[in-house]
Batch of 2 targets.
Target 1
Amino acid sequence: MKLNTSKAAQFVAAEKVNNYAPAIAAAQKALEEGTCPGNDFLGWLHLPSEITPEFIAEINACAQVLRENCEAVVVAGIGGSYLGARAVLEALSDSFSWLKPSDNPRILFAGNNIGEDYLYELIGYLKGKKFGVINISKSGTTTETAITFRLLKKLCEDERGKDMAKKVIVAITDAKKGAARTTADKEGYQTFVIPDNVGGRFSVLTPVGLLPIAVAGFDIAQLVKGAQDMEKEAAIDVPFEQNPCAQYAAIRNALYAEGKKIEILVNFQPKLHYMNEWWKQLYGESEGKDKKGIFPAAVDFSTDLHSMGQWIQDGERTIFETVISVDKPNSTLQVPADEENLDGLNFLAGKRIDEVNHMAELGTQLAHVDGGVPNIRISIEKLDEYNLGQLIYFFEKACGISGLVLGVNPFNQPGVEAYKKNMFALLNKPGYEAESKAIQERLK
Ligand code: PA5
């Protein structure tokens, strides 16, 4: 993975970026020594190097049971208990795998919304299928996931019988507390623990991400290896100038100070759409607090050049872009020649599709820089487990540093509770009687 900030440098003086070096060194030290705000949630920091081959084997063994007994596996989870697995799976999977016969179980996602039609249609799809469930919830009490699991547990038991359900339902949750833990212990499901000191959005390299990725047939050892290598590359003793996480944290804070309040994560590969979603949660939930924080937005190019391109080129100049650039596709396809050339595209005949995409990428970069949009580029060699592991740890470490430099606690999310309180009051949840009356009044 390579970070290139040269096309952002013209928008902020090098001196201003370098001025962040002491704050970044202090943030790194605080992370290492566990002296920063949120220091009870630093389990992600050295997680990659702490993962053992035995642990990977344990996850793979559980995945194998699901693979042997299921044609579909529903991953139930939301936010940090969902997006990491989906990001990696979408990036690695054949875009049309759902249309093809496969030895791998089809992975479906649920528990991340409260759409009645979505759940009804999911149940319709699962009826008559050999399916399993991975129920992921750190708290074990998240409403979206819990409602979904209630439906899926019943369906699985009805369709496959209690004994098989016990075999193909796995819970990933807290070691001791929460409804997901209570149910798993009572029913005798296999369980994996989400460590207390790893917050949801930093949990993709725990069983939260690793198990679904392994069930889909991908190499989690390589994913972890990529993260381990990035852990070394971004270690505290790597100098500021060479440390990619320090550099990314510095430039984005420097741009923010110059009034660039919105960072747009850009990809040129549709398979990275959910990487964008994962990144948005990571940075949004970590930095958006105390009335500050860069707003993390995301686009898929070239698709969104035809929708958001105008705004980015020409709208309010409060944005900067961070592009994830993939050097090589995993397959080869050329633009065909056409005798009639009615579309006038024969000048592209014989060229790789990816060459066209890369020229779109370079052309866009220059156009946006000309339009006043600083451009940061993160290049990875290709979409595989190893490179994604690097990218994940890179973003996590840079996020921890960046949030501390901004002066917030990057590891809590107090703001997420506000909607839940109102929803429970509106649903007359026991214990919310006082709030129920008050909120009914406010809705009048
Ligand atoms: O990052 C976070 O903490 C959140 O996104 C949570 O992961 C999300 O709300 C799901 O919570 P839980 O795993 O407790 O069901």
Target 2
Amino acid sequence: MDVMLRDEIYDQAVKWVLEAGRIIREKMHDPLDIEIKSNANDLVTKLDKETEQFFVRKIKEKYSDHFILGEEGYGDELSSLDGTIWIIDPIDGTMNFVHQKRNFAISVGIYHDGVGEIGIIYDVMANIVYHAKKGDGAYKDDVRLPKLMKKTTINEAIIGMNHFWLCENSLVDERHMQHFVKQIRGTRTYGSAALEFAYTAEGIIDGYISMRLSPWDVAAGIVLVNEVGGRTTDIDGNELHLLKKSAILTSNSDYHQHILENLQKGRK
Ligand code: IPD
Ligand code: CA
Ligand code: CA
């Protein structure tokens, strides 16, 4: 992608993300019209929909040749990653949004011919933007995030994950997962995949594993984690396909292989 064009798209995308965040903060105490999607714990609100519509309107007006893949379905139906694609989760962590009114993010990843060029994750209530351009490093607001520190022993790792890994329907035998959890220093569950990617890029957790994520949960985060020398794959070690759901591992690359091998040993 042409660098000047990319920089312009990036500046524009950051502005829209900040504006969308401001609107969410303004409207979040109005009735949210909460609806249930695939199951009782899968929620969507009026503001998830309105925020995605906001991006679709802005992008189609300014970049009519770009495509949009958005969680709420207001974007395009895509069967290939050709061209420039905005992969958008208007509110990642809707359950946190509804119950806590914090710990949710806007996530925007911009890919060109399948390559992650721009990643923006906005923690709306903390007013912190994590952002990255491919090859230009990752930032938390104005501060450049350092390359992830060299790690040697897994016993010091803190891994983001949720309880699904320890349940009967886990993709990895639950006793094996319990054994894995005992080996590491600790686990954390933040309830927003995008923020968990951002925290991995920041190095405040050493990785994040999730059983079933969609492209909009991971698109921006992958760019951020790449920029600090981390790695993201599915739990079988394959590159992610951004039009499909996957079980994912993103982590400090020193831990990546070790965790993958560990998960493989208990793989169902
Ligand atoms: C969800 C959050 C959550 C993760 C789920 C996602 P949503 O996204 O990222 O942390 O565990 O798998 O679906 O529905 O709040 O956008
Ligand atoms: Ca999400
Ligand atoms: Ca969402």
